[in-house]
Write a structure and sequence with these properties.
By secondary structure, the chain is α/β, with parallel strands linked by helices. Helix content is about 50%, strand content about 15%. It is globular and about 60 Å long. The protein binds beta-D-galactopyranose. Beta-D-galactopyranose binds next to loops.
């Protein structure tokens, strides 16, 4: 398979010739360790292998990438940064501000990235007008994944409103099954909170609270209602949810042990990896009440500034490869995400992927596309972590909903 287009070849040749070097291995730090994620990563590894670029794997498990970012900090502090790092949103900008990232302008210009990468992604892939990372995908967090056989057996239709969703969960629980598969980790609760806040208050409220950090919105009655919905969700998880990894929660839905999971579309990668088909075995739909809005996060590969010319050549080749249209299709079909460029045909995508692509474009056009709070696209890590703490403490019963909204105001204020 050839993902490396003619222009990519030219870009790589350009970088190689300016540096007069041959390609070196790339050392890639990432947190793609689940079955579906590893399958997607293999698409990238194989693509680079086809160009004789070796892969030095540096996996750091933990959805959402918190642990990966801790390891990265330690590596950079020790003066030994990896060549390429999976990164999200504001983390990329933080590293760029520290002057740690390589400039990808040559390859971006040769490949015409400016014209094809949506503005919402460029906001995180460029710093001071310089390209500093290559976006590999667009995920979104306000999705629900459902086991179709479980719903059919109980005569439950796909819920379209929050009330219907609650009724569906109640019916599953009454039938003795787990209604909501969930892993009790702060980032997973925050991921659910993205969709819940959109479902309660819509995109304007989400923006005011999560992006503008408006204390009135953070402490509002609407926020109290969002926490109430989280408490409702808590009442539908099983007893063993604490600490569970997200892909094990997906497996509960895949195996029919649970009906629903609220999770970003990387969950689809797990269903596909288990041989399941959308519409037949599982359903994908937006968190009820949030249809028409999209909370997105984009995995990007930031390249760290390195001395060696051949390492720089490999970084350029990897960046060019990631951005080629055929690679964007092949990778995202497996990963569950959608392409990070607007000109990739949807032919190879399944029904959920086609829906995701259409909804992303529509949300961008109607100003209903917002960065995921849970995945570092709404605010910097300090604010994100402050929100995580409150959301997870409430989910675990430490605060009632009114107290949680008050705590959110205080925590966010202190984190800025
Ligand atoms: C997200 C990332 C996804 C997926 C997920 C779970 O932060 O954007 O690609 O890996 O974590 O690990």
């Amino acid at each position: 398979m050839r993902y490396f287009g003619k222009k990519s070849m030219m870009a790589a040749a350009l970088l190689a010739s300016t540096s007069m070097a041959s390609a070196a291995d790339v050392e890639v730090l990432h947190w793609w360790t689940s079955g579906g994620e590893a399958a997607a990563l293999n698409v990238l590894k194989d693509d680079l292998a086809g160009q004789s670029i070796g892969w030095n794997d540096m996996p750091v498990a933990g959805g959402g990438g918190e642990s990966a970012m801790t390891v990265l900090r330690a590596r950079v502090t020790a003066g030994d940064p990896p060549t390429a790092v999976q990164m999200l949103g504001f983390d990329i900008l933080d590293w760029a501000e520290e002057g740690a990232l390589a400039n990808l302008n040559d390859v971006a210009a040769a490949e015409g990235w400016d014209a094809v990468v949506p503005a919402a992604l460029q906001a995180f892939a460029k710093h001071d007008g310089q390209w500093i990372s290559a976006p590999v995908n667009v995920h979104s967090t306000n999705w629900v994944w459902a086991n179709k056989a479980v719903l059919d057996e109980l005569g439950i239709a796909q819920p379209t409103t929050w009330a219907e969703f609650e009724a569906a969960m109640a019916a599953v629980k009454a039938a003795g099954k787990t209604a909501l598969a969930h892993g009790g980790q702060a980032w997973q609760e925050a991921t659910m909170f993205d969709g819940v806040v959109l479902s309660v208050g819509g995109v304007d409220f989400y923006r005011k609270a999560f992006i503008d950090l408006d204390p009135e919105a953070l402490g509002s009655d609407m926020m109290v209602e969002a926490f109430d919905r989280m408490a409702t969700l808590r009442s539908y998880v099983d007893d063993n949810f604490s600490g569970r990894d997200w892909n094990l929660a997906s497996a509960m839905v895949i195996n029919g042990d649970a009906a629903f999971q609220i999770m970003g579309d990387w969950a689809k990668g797990e269903f596909l990896n288990a041989g399941k088909t959308p519409g037949e075995d599982f359903l994908c739909f937006r968190v009820p009440g949030s249809a028409g809005t999209v909370s997105f996060n984009s995995d990007q590969f930031a390249m760290f500034a390195v001395e060696s010319a051949d390492a720089r050549a490999s970084q350029g080749a990897m960046a060019a490869s990631i951005m080629s249209p055929s690679f964007q299709s092949a990778f995202n079909v497996v990963k569950g995400s959608v392409p990070a460029r607007t000109d990739v045909p949807n032919d190879d995508f399944d029904a959920c992927g086609k829906q995701g692509m259409a909804e992303l474009a529509a949300a961008a056009d109607s100003d209903s596309l917002v960065g995921s709070m849970a995945h570092g696209h709404a605010n910097r890590a300090s604010v994100k972590n402050a929100m995580y703490d409150v959301v997870t403490a409430h989910f675990n019963g430490e605060y009632d909903s009114a107290t949680a909204a008050e705590e959110l105001v205080t925590a966010v204020e202190l984190a800025q």
